[in-house]
Amino acid sequence: MTEARRTKRGTEGRAVRVRRVYEAPEPGDGTRVLVDRLWPRGLAKSEAALDEWLKDAAPSAELRKWYGNDPARFAEFAGRYAAELAGPGPERPLAPAA
After folding, report:
1. Residues 6 or more apart from 25 whose CB is under 8 A from it?
2. For residue 54, which of 42, 30, 70, 38 has the smallest C-alpha distance?
3. H or E segment at 9?
4. What is the pLDDT of residue 90?
5. How far apart are CA 66 and CA 70, in angstroms?
6. What are phi and psi for residue 89, nearest 5 degrees?
7. Long-range contacts: 71-78, Cβ < 8 Å, 24+?
8. Rounded distance, CA 85 to CA 60, Å?
9. SS3 of residue 85 by DSSP
10. What is the pTM of this model?
11. 3-state SS string over 28-83?
12. Which 3 state secondary structure label does DSSP give 17?
């Protein structure tokens, strides 16, 4: 998808917007969460305007390398990524804050 932003409904009916971390925050953003194992190049943590960084919710380095941003592999990537999220690991990578 070529759009910079995508909106989906979260599990509790809240909208989830996907944006680039380099975009400036907007008033209606809500909680800003980075889901990536690597910190974005050239972005100071003080400038990121993030509420949380969930490294463990991102695809593994091995899966990212295998995928290689190849659109023909996306369906299999999505399945493998779902399996990673369902497997053993951190208890709370995507759980809502209490």
Report:
1. 32, 49
2. 38
3. strand 6-9
4. 61
5. 9
6. 160, -160
7. none
8. 10
9. helix
10. 0.69
11. CCCCCEECCCCCCCCCCHHHCCCCEECHHHCCCHHHHHHHCCCHHHHHHHHHHHHH
12. strand
Q: Return the SS3 of 15.
A: strand
| Residue-level length of the chain | 98
For residue 58, report the phi and psi dihedrals to the nearest 5 degrees.
Answer: -85, 160
Q: What is the band of 62 on the pLDDT scale with cuts at 50, 70, 90?
A: very high
Supply 17's token pair.
């917007």
Contacts of 37 (CB under 8 A, 6+ apart): 55, 58, 59, 60, 61, 64
The letter for the amino acid at 58 is: A
User: In this predicted structure, what is the pLDDT of residue 13?
Assistant: 63
Interatomic CA distance for residues 97 and 17, integer angstroms: 18
The two three-digit tokens of residue 1, written as one number: 């998808």
Residue 48 · residue 30 · CB < 8 Å: no
Estimate to the nearest angstrom the gap between the alpha carbon of 90 and the chain centroid: 16
